[in-house]
Write a structure and sequence with these properties.
2 copies of one chain form a homodimer.
Chain A lengths: L4 H15 L4 H17 L1 H17 L4 H7 L3 H16 L7 E6 L5 E8 L2 E6 L4 H12 L3 E5 L5 H17 L7 E3 L5 H7 L8 E5 L2 H10 L12 E5 L5 H13 L8 E7 H17 L3 E4 L1 H6 L8 H5 L6 E7 L2 H11 L4 E5 L3 H10 L4 E6 L17 E2 L7 E2 L6 E12 L3
Parallel strand pairs in A: 3-4, 3-6, 4-5, 7-8, 7-11, 8-10, 9-10, 11-12
Antiparallel strand pairs in A: 1-2, 2-15, 13-14
Helix pairs in contact in A: 2-5, 2-7, 3-7, 5-6, 6-7
Chain lengths: 416, 416
C-alpha cells in the first residue's frame, strides 16, 4: 500500500528544513549528478516513456500531444543540459536584500530564504518534472509533484533517478516526491494541507489552473493564460507593425505570449488592414473580425463577445478596429488576461500612455509580445509566467521561488 | 435598493485605473483633506459611533470590546494624525526596481505599480477603516472595505467623510466602497470576484482569517495569528532573559507579537525557572507547564497538546523544558505560527543556528518578540503582519501593497 498524501507531505516538509540551509555548492553537485544520471540511464527512461506512448496511442491521443509526451534522446539530453545550466545560475538564497540599525540598536536584516515546500501540478510533458526539480532544488525548496496520468511511467522513472541522485549527494530522498496521478481525490487533499505545503503552482491549461485556484486553501501562483493583444496606433510604422503582428501570431501560436487579438486605430484601418490580413490568411491564419473589419476585407466571420475573451493557442486571430488609444486600452484591460500587451506607435505620448495605463505583467512598445519569457528577460530559466499580482508577476525565475525572513540581532532590547 | 456586490466591485475596479496613475502630490492632498474632514465632523462621527456603542451595550458586549469600538476625541485625532503621517511617507508607486538593456536592444524596466483593487475584511475597531484608506490610497489602490456589523454606523460615517474628501480632491468617489456588513452572503460573493478584486486582506481573529483563506478564490494575504516563542538557551544572560520574557508576555498581551510559549534549556531550568515563574505569577500571569516544569514549581496545571498550539492573547504562558536548541527549534517549527520567534543566548553558534533554522517571518536574538511591527521596523505604518510566505512576510507597509509591471521599450524587435 502506498502512503497517503498527508504523510508524504509531512515528510517533504521535514526534508525542506534540511534543504533550506544547504550550500550552493552542495545543491549544484546534486544538479550535476542528476544530469549525469539522466544520460547514463537514457535507455531505461526511453523504455518507460514508450510504455506511456504505447498506452496513449491505444487511447487515440492526437499526434501533437503524443509528440509532447515523447522523451527522445535529444529531449533527455536537453533535460541534462537544462540541469547544468541551472547549476551555473547564481543561488538566490541567503541574499541580504536590505537592512538597517534602528535607533534602539536592533540590527534588522531582510534575508532571502526558500519558500519551503512547493507543490507543482502539471500536465502532459514529462520534461516539466526535471525542470521543476532543477529550479526547485536550486532555490532550496522541497517539492511535491503531481504530473498527468498519461506520463505516469515517464515521471516515475525520472523521479527514481532524482531520488537516486539526492541519496548519492547526501540529501534526504524525501526532498522530492511524486504524488499518484491516478487519483483526483489526492489533489483535492493536497490543496488543503496548509501545514505542510507553502505554495502551489499549477502549470498547464486554463482548466487545470482554474480548478486549482478555485479549490486551493494554500497560496497559489497562477501561471500561463495569455490572451495577448497588439494595438497598432494611427502613427505606427506600418512595416514594423506588420512584422510584429506576424511574429507574435505565427512564430509559435501554441504558447501563452502569442498574440490573440489585433486592435487597429480606425485612422489607418482601411489602408493598413487589408494587406496585412491578406498576408496572414496566406500564412494559414483564420481571421475573425468586428463589423468594421468585415467591411474592409471580404469573407471574414464575425468575432463574438467570446472571441475577445479567448486564448486560441492556434492560428486564429480576432481583429477589431478601435476609435483610438483610449478604446484600445479599455479593450485590453477588459478582455485581456493581464499577461503581455503591445502597442506599435511612433507617437511618444501614446507609447507612454499605453505603458502606464495597461494593466498587465509585461507591456511593450514596438516589440513582439513573444519576448515575455525568463530566458529572453535574462533570468536564465523560468517556472512559468505569473499573471497574478501577488508575489511574482511575469516570468518566474529562481528568485521568485523564494520568500524573505527578517533576522534581528539584538543586545537585550525590550519594547517600552 | 442598494447595489449588489458585483456592481460595486466593478465600479471600484474602474476607479482603480484612475488611481494607478495619480501623482503623489494629488494623493497626499486627499489624505490631508480627509484628516481635516475628520476633525471638522468630529461631533457627527461621535454621534454615529454612540449609536453603535448603545446597541453593543444593549447586546451585552464585554467592556474590553466596547472600548475597542469607541471613537473618542483622542482616537479621532489619532486617525487624523495617522493620515498626515502617511502623507509624509515616500510613495512606493513608480519606483524602477531594476532593469537592463538586452543584447537585442530591448530596454526592460521593472516598475512598482499598485495592486489594483484591495478588499479588506476586518472586525470591531472602526479606526481600521481610516488606516486602510490611508495606506490603500497612498499606494494607489482602490478599496472594498467590509467591517463588522457592530461598527456599522461608525464605518458608514467614516466612509461618507472619505468619499466627500475624494470628491473634494477630484478623485472618483468609487475609489473606496463599503460593503454591507449585515450579509454573510455578500462576503462569500466578494471572495469569488476574481475579475474585479486583486487581493483580499483579512484583519482580525483566527476565525475570520481561516474562513477567508478557505473560501477565497482571490489571492489572500494572511495576517496576524502569532503563536510566538522565546527560547532561553543554556548560555543565556539570566537577567536579560527575564526582562525579555516579561516584556514579551505582559507589555501588551492581546497582540499578535506577544509571547505565548516559553522554552527553557534543561541545563538551566531548575535554577532559572522558579524565580521567573514566581515573578510572572505575581504579575498576574497564569502558567501552564510541561511535566518537568511542574516538578520545579508547585501548583502549575499541565499544558496539553492544544496549549502548545494556542495563541492566548491573554496573560497566560505555556512553559516547556527542552533538551537543547535542536528540540527548541523543532518545537517552534511544529507548533508555531511562523510569526515572531526569539532566542536568548550568549552562544554565537546557537544564535546563528536559531536564526537560520527557525521558519518564521521574524527571528530574534536577544530581543523581545514585541518588535515585529511596521513602526518599529522603520516602515512608518503597516497593514498588519503577514505570516504567509507569498508576496509579503512580516510587517506590511506601503511597498507591500504594490506589485510590479515590466515596461519594455523596443524598436521593432521580433523573436527569431
Amino acid at each position: 500500500m502506498r502512503e497517503n498524501v498527508k504523510d508524504m507531505a509531512r515528510k517533504t516538509k521535514q526534508a525542506s528544513y534540511f534543504l533550506a540551509n544547504v550550500s550552493s555548492f552542495h545543491k549544484n553537485q546534486f544538479l550535476l549528478q542528476l544530469a549525469d544520471n539522466l544520460e547514463r540511464y537514457e535507455e531505461e527512461i526511453k523504455k518507460e516513456n514508450r510504455r506511456d506512448l504505447g498506452r496513449a496511442k491505444d487511447m487515440g491521443m492526437q499526434p501533437s500531444l503524443l509528440d509532447r509526451l515523447e522523451l527522445s534522446s535529444s529531449r533527455i539530453q536537453a533535460m541534462a543540459s537544462g540541469l547544468r545550466e541551472v547549476a551555473n545560475l547564481p543561488d538566490p538564497v541567503g541574499e541580504v536584500i536590505e537592512g538597517c540599525k534602528r535607533p534602539n540598536g536592533l540590527l534588522i536584516t531582510k534575508v532571502r530564504v526558500p519558500l519551503g515546500v512547493v507543490a507543482i501540478i502539471y500536465e502532459a510533458r514529462p520534461n516539466v518534472t526535471i525542470d521543476s526539480v532543477a529550479l526547485g532544488i536550486k532555490s532550496g525548496n522541497a517539492l511535491l509533484l503531481r504530473g498527468s496520468s498519461s506520463a505516469v511511467h515517464s515521471n516515475r522513472v525520472l523521479i527514481d533517478k532524482t531520488k537516486q541522485a539526492l541519496s548519492q549527494c547526501g540529501f534526504p530522498p524525501e526532498a522530492v516526491n511524486l504524488l499518484r496521478c491516478e487519483s483526483h481525490e489526492e489533489v483535492q487533499e493536497l490543496l488543503t494541507l496548509r501545514d505542510y505545503v507553502d505554495v502551489v503552482i499549477p502549470r498547464g491549461g486554463a482548466g487545470l489552473i482554474k480548478s486549482v485556484v478555485e479549490n486551493s486553501q494554500i497560496p497559489v501562483i497562477e501561471t500561463g493564460v495569455g490572451n495577448c493583444h497588439i494595438y497598432v496606433d494611427g502613427s505606427a510604422d506600418w512595416e514594423m507593425a506588420e512584422k510584429i503582428v506576424i511574429n507574435a501570431k505565427i512564430q509559435r501560436p501554441s504558447v501563452c505570449n502569442a498574440c490573440e487579438t489585433l486592435l487597429v486605430d480606425e485612422e489607418i484601418a482601411s489602408q493598413f488592414l487589408p494587406s496585412l490580413l491578406c498576408t496572414l490568411k496566406k500564412k494559414g491564419v483564420e481571421i475573425r473580425g468586428c463589423e468594421k473589419t468585415r467591411e474592409l476585407v471580404e469573407d471574414i466571420p464575425l468575432a463574438t463577445e467570446e472571441d475577445w475573451y479567448t486564448e486560441y493557442l492556434d492560428l486564429i486571430l480576432a481583429v477589431k478596429v478601435v476609435g483610438g488609444i483610449e478604446e484600445a486600452i479599455n479593450h485590453v484591460n477588459q478582455y485581456g488576461s493581464h499577461h503581455s500587451e503591445a502597442i506599435v506607435t511612433q507617437n511618444y505620448a501614446a507609447a507612454r500612455k499605453f505603458l502606464e495605463e495597461v494593466d498587465a505583467a509585461a507591456v511593450y512598445v514596438n516589440a513582439s509580445t513573444r519576448f515575455t519569457d525568463g530566458g529572453e528577460f535574462g533570468m536564465g530559466a523560468e517556472m512559468g509566467i505569473s499573471t497574478q499580482k501577488l508575489h511574482a508577476r511575469g516570468p518566474m525565475g529562481l528568485r521568485e521561488l523564494t520568500t524573505v525572513k527578517y533576522m534581528v540581532w539584538g543586545t537585550g532590547q525590550i519594547r517600552e
